[in-house]
């Protein structure tokens, strides 16, 4: 059971974290069709959640695995998680490089509102009868 749990933790870091980061980065550069400001806000919040979760798990899973493998006395998994600490740093460097290439921050991005400006179909004269504002 120990090996299964440690293996699950290791493979969650090895495959799950890069997947979350990749999906978050793809969503970050995507131009989704979001016709309203609320939908754009929801899209941006989901993207932030994916990136933040991936970055937090990238740091937490290798450290937790190394700690649990040490407590369980599993030398093989201890070596795996020690190597994962190096991989953790590489993933942070890769995300930092991507972040340096963007024009804005990776998190906190909300796609532009795609809702068209309302069409003015009638004019209400300003008091005094001088006509419509703007002409």
Name the poorly predicted regions. Answer: none
| First and last CA, distance | 78 Å
Tell me about the biggest sheet? none
Task: Give the strand tally.
Answer: 0
Order of helical and strand elements? HHH
Radius of gyration: 25 Å
Structural class: mainly alpha
H/I helix tally: 3
Please report which band the strand proportion falls in: under 5%, 5-15%, 15-25%, 25-35%, 35-45% or over 45%. under 5%
Shape, principal axes of CA atoms: elongated
Mean pLDDT: 83
Proportion of residues in helical segments: 55-70%
Describe it.
The protein has 135 residues and is an all-alpha fold. It has three helices and no strands. Helix 2 (37-72) packs antiparallel against helix 3 (75-101). The mean pLDDT is 83.
How would you briefly describe this protein structure?
This protein is an all-alpha fold and 135 residues long. Helix content is 67%, strand content 0%. The longest helix is centred in the middle third of the chain and has 36 residues, at 37-72.
Question: What brief labels describe this structure?
Answer:
135 residues, mainly alpha
């Amino acid at each position: 059971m120990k090996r299964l749990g440690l293996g699950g933790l290791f493979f969650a870091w090895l495959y799950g974290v890069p997947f979350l980061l990749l999906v978050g980065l793809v969503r970050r550069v995507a131009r989704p069709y979001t016709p309203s400001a609320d939908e754009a806000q929801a899209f941006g919040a989901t993207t932030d959640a994916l990136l933040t979760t991936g970055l937090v798990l990238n740091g937490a899973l290798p450290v937790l695995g190394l700690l649990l493998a040490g407590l369980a006395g599993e030398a093989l998994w201890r070596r795996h998680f020690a190597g994962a600490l190096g991989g953790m740093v590489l993933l942070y460097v890769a995300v930092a490089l991507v972040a340096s290439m963007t024009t804005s921050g990776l998190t906190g991005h909300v796609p532009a509102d795609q809702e068209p400006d309302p069409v003015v179909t009638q004019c209400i004269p300003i008091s005094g009868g001088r006509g419509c504002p703007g002409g």
